[in-house]
Amino acid sequence: MFALVDVNNMYCSVERVFNPRLDGRPLVVLSSNDGACIARSNEAKELGVQMAQPWFQVRHLQKSHGLVALSANFELYSDMSARMMAIASRYSPNVVPYSIDEAFIDFSGIPGDLTATSRHLRATVLQELGLPTSVGLAPTKTLAKLANHIAKTCDRKPGHYPTEQSRRLAQVCNTAELSAAELETLMAATDVGDVWGVGRKIAAQLNAGGVRSVLDLVSADVATLRRQFSVVFEKTVLELRGTPCMGVEEAPAAKQQILVSRSFGKAVTHLDGIVEAVSEFASRASEKLRLQGSVAGAIQVFIRTSPFRENERQYSPSVTVPVRPTADSRKIVSAACEAARSMFRPGFNYAKAGVMLVDLQQAESLGDQSELDLFGSGEPEASEGPDRSALMQAMDTLNRRFGRGAVRIGSTTAAKANDAGATSWAVRQDRRTPRYTTRWNEMPVVRG
Fold it and tell me: Would you place residue 159 in the very low, low, confident or very high pLDDT band (cuts 50, 70, 90)?
């Protein structure tokens, strides 16, 4: 039996934990540079605010309907996510995070009433973190995802689902406790576009073929769906029918490439600003690389002007630098900065930069592969030895303990721990709340 636990409107819910005055008010969280709405409270959704809608299109709702907008506080959200995952791990030894706000739990071999266990999990997260969650339980991951959707939305859609079921299944939906007729009723009331893995394009194609509800999809001919779409989509349908096709992986698959890029808060015109930004992005990418136990064989760096500023000169170069497979931040940052220097041309208003690590391999698969320096002494060039690995591990440990940027490569001078003196490339976050749980100087203060 699988369970999917999901924090309801996580970004907004986290903000409300530390500012209860936001409860009941329409709230949105904005993307980098405060450009678009990437999270919406239920109240904001009722106002018609759409996901990814540009902020300038809805900012008038501040005055007319009291809409509150906050800058994304990813450091806070990530920490609260880790705390939620830790609580979930108390209920099963096999918990796999699926995203920042949800995780699959394998309840195989867990005795007792799993619905009661899930309600206890939900109550614990609410008590210890203040975060509301929903839980869906089913014999397959896709069906658990659907059950979670029902648990999250059934009490917010009056008349959409049967009233008796809505009351019983709100926040925790266990398909094992439903009769075949009850499950069919719920599937008939759920749009096919709400199925995990069914995007807008596939949903439109299914609707054109008369498949509009989840029940329509489950009743369709699997062989026909496989020919029209893919074997993967066939597995989705089989999982909805209760046939397991996916297990809970012990760890997510390692990424084949790692990209860190940002649009600048305002245009950057000097080389120093570009180098600082690229240094920061390369350093963050290196941390992610080590986290998944990989090394990179090449580094791609790009800088860009804004294509939306048509009256300005345009320039968007990109350079890929091959390197000896490494996860050493110093090597990666150094190579990325040299690439940035080679590309930089004065006279342009740069709007974005990025660093992508490619040709990734698992570190343990390389073994000792020191290579000869063909133009040097003939001795093997020193590879990443224990000293460098230990240094990187120490840096990562200190940054996890004291917050990102506590220890950093010297060229990444812009993003100070207290944000003082940040240069113009830094992302604009005019509405960001304090990082309450990860910065000593931003901890909430309770006054009696």
Answer: low
User: CB-based burial of residue 164 (10 Å sphere; 0-12 exposed, 13-18 middle, 19+ buried)?
Assistant: exposed
Predicted TM-score (pTM) of the model is 0.71
Q: State the CB neighbour count (10 A cutoff) for residue 430.
A: 11
pLDDT for residue 426: 64
| 442: in domain | no
**Same domain, yes or no, for 273 and 209?**
no
Query: Is there a single domain that holds both residue 42 and residue 83?
Result: yes
Residue 261 corresponds to which tokens in the numbers above?
Answer: 């890029």
Say whether both 264 and 171 belong to one domain.
no
413 occurs within a structural domain: no
> 252, 277, 304: which is the final residue of a domain?
252
Distance CA 110, CA 236 (A): 26
Q: What does the pLDDT read at residue 82?
A: 87
Q: Per-residue pLDDT tens for 86-109?
A: 999 999 988 888 888 999 999 988
Residue where the block lists tokens 């709007």: 351
Domain of 223, in residue numbers = 1-252
Domains contained in the chain, number: 2
User: 211 is written with which tokens?
Assistant: 């498949």
